[in-house]
């Protein structure tokens, strides 16, 4: 009987130890789940309205959705163009790094966005934290009669895992009076108008508008930022510049030029009337 009692006590102690170990490891596993630990977007507006954007994205990879790297979607086509068509904006990818080193990447063009794939097809990345830095330029300043504005989807809304924290900065041209800048932002799913879960302030010393989320974001949630300022300070592109910035127009114009050139050469070689006499 004493031996049986001791065995029971031994098993009870062992069971408690197992429960204790399980309780200690579960929170660690939850914290280590795939996520974006921090997302920082630094946007500099040039005097001609060009955006120079640097995104610093730190992720925790566990080999689930993040196996060989990540991808990032950049919107490049919007509704509201002439004749009810979509309008396109220029996009120039400058550099991509992975943990401080130049990264392998390629891009695919979709209907309304360009997707940047970062990583190599046959190489999986180690589990743990990794930092990606993407730098690109685009021209997406919006012009109105009474004001101009930066309206920017800082993070995108296509991430399949949560984002712990987001910081976004907008650096405006020196000619923009910061005391006349009206900042706001939206947190949540695409087209959300929730303004409760972030802070937005103008830093006079840094000449920046600084946005920060105040809660963790779930999958498919993001941050959209707005900075309004008086109209007429930043140069508005001409109609010709705006049309030429549209890559679809350039491709169409180039194709038309090739076809016209072909027929012109064909006419010159074989289609002209023979000389009289």
Layout of SSEs?
Blueprint: H1 2-32, E1 35-45, E2 51-61, E3 69-75, E4 77-78, E5 87-88, E6 91-98, E7 101-102, E8 105-109, E9 113-119, E10 128-138, E11 142-143, E12 147-153, E13 166-171, E14 182-188, E15 198-203, E16 208-213, E17 222-230, H2 239-245, H3 247-271
Q: How would a crystallographer describe the biggest sheet?
A: 8 strands, mixed
CATH architecture of the largest domain: Sandwich
Strand content: 35-45%
Report Rg.
27 Å
What is the chains' assembly state? single chain
Report the span from N to C terminus.
132 Å
Number of domains: 2
Element pattern in H and E: HEEEEEEEEEEEEEEEEEHH
Mean pLDDT: 85
- For the secondary structure, the number of strands is 17
Helical percentage: 10-25%
User: Low-confidence parts lasting 5 or more residues at pLDDT below 50?
Assistant: 22-31
Main sheet: which strands, in order across?
A: 7-6-10-2-1-13-16-15
CATH topology of the largest domain: Immunoglobulin-like
Class from secondary-structure proportions: alpha+beta
Structural shape:
globular
């Amino acid at each position: 009987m004493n031996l049986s009692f001791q065995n029971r006590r031994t098993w009870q102690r062992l069971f408690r130890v197992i429960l204790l170990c399980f309780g200690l490891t579960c929170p660690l596993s939850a914290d280590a789940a795939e996520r974006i630990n921090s997302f920082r977007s630094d946007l500099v507006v040039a005097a001609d309205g060009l955006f120079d954007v640097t995104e610093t994205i730190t992720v925790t990879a566990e080999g689930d959705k993040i196996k060989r790297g990540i991808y990032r979607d950049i919107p490049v086509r919007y509704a509201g163009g002439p004749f009810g068509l979509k309008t396109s904006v220029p996009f120039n990818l400058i550099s991509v790094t992975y943990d401080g080193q130049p990264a392998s990447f390629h891009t695919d063009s979709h209907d309304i966005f360009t997707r940047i794939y970062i990583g190599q097809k046959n190489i999986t990345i180690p589990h743990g934290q990794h930092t990606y830095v993407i730098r690109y330029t685009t021209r997406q300043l919006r012009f109105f009669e009474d004001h101009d504005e930066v309206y920017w989807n800082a993070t995108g809304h296509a991430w399949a895992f949560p984002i712990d924290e987001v910081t976004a900065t907008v650096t405006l041209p020196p000619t923009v009076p910061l005391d006349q800048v009206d900042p706001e932002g939206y947190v949540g799913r695409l087209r959300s108008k929730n303004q409760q879960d972030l802070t937005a302030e103008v830093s006079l010393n840094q000449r920046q508008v600084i946005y920060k989320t105040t809660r963790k974001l779930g999958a498919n949630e993001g941050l959209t930022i707005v900075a309004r300022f008086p109209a007429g300070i930043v140069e508005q592109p001409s109609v010709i510049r705006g049309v030429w910035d549209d890559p679809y127009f350039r491709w169409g114009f180039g194709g038309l030029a090739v076809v016209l050139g072909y027929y012109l050469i064909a006419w010159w070689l074989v289609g002209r009337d023979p000389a009289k006499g």
